[in-house]
Design a protein that fits this description.
Blueprint lengths: L8 H8 L3 H8 L6 H14 L5 H8 L4 E6 L5 H16 L3 E6 L4 H10 L5 E4 L8 H8 L2 E5 L9 E5 L1 H14 L4 E6 L9 H13 L2 E6 L4 H12 L7 E4 L2 H13 L9 E3 L6 H5 L3 E3 L2 H17 L5 E5 L2 E3 L6
Parallel strand pairs: 1-2, 1-3, 3-4, 4-5, 5-11, 6-7, 6-8, 8-9
Antiparallel strand pairs: 10-12
Helix pairs in contact: 1-2, 1-3, 2-3, 5-13, 8-9, 10-11
Amino acid sequence: MPQRKRATIREVAKATGLSPAAVSYALRGMQVSEETQRRVQQAAAELGYEADPIARALASGRTGMIGVLCGSLEDLWQQSLAVGIGRTLREKEHYALILDASGDPERERTLALQLRGVDGLIVQPVDPAAAFWAELAESLPVVVIGDALKDARTAAEVVFDNLGGVTLALEYLRARGHRRVAVLTPTRASTPDRPADRHVTDEAARLGLELEVATCPQGLAPATEVARGLLTTTAPPSAVFCFSDSIAYGVLKAAGELGLKVPGDVSVMGYDDHPMSELLGLTSVNWNLDGIVQAAVRLVVAAADGTIRRRRIIQEPTLRERTSVG
């Protein structure tokens, strides 16, 4: 069966009684009324018109492509973040180029500096203190999620109130009688400047908690292995606070394999409230994933269009209390 020829912008112009230039502006939401935009969009949909991305890039100097550099896609929350950003960008006629740093700061640096052909970059960094971010932000609109980039003039920031989140979690554990708390973090020894890791040590000291901090991968199998070692020591913690729900799932799995009851033998808490956590009964700190997606996409599109100055949005934490903490 022969393929139907794609409608042209001139056919949309003829159907609406407008000039091709006016139709082009309307499809991009520029210089015309909302009523005209709706009329043009309806005609384009009826005719099956789709903008040619190559022609649009040549005309505008932009590709419509946004880079999304994730710290580690082994983390289920970051997977959900990337999916949400990709879908929301598509609603705004942009596309996501999703990259995975795999938790490795050197890989993150390589991917960021070799990135080409994008109009902007959304990043949840592995190493927010790396020196290269300042140089990159001078040549590309960068929107950062989670932790601010040191010395980098980013287009916008959607940062977490990590002090608030850490305090919320540790005070909750202390109020339930926990004094020996283990913290599992994906932060490596080579990237020690992440705010959450600094705050957890300070807050534990303030609250009089005995704290053990250990690095843990975000994949289920390696997280389970680290947790198994932690829970089989001669003096195991009464609670494990994980800086990723994906890590917490490994703790839950290890506890089950060891015959330990949660929360009877050990309490477990997460830090990003992935949707799976409700099903598993994991108490976690929520950062409003949908709100982050909408804000990051809105800001990066505006930055790519040159229509915003620097913006900083601070995400406030909320506690999702479930059954994993006793």
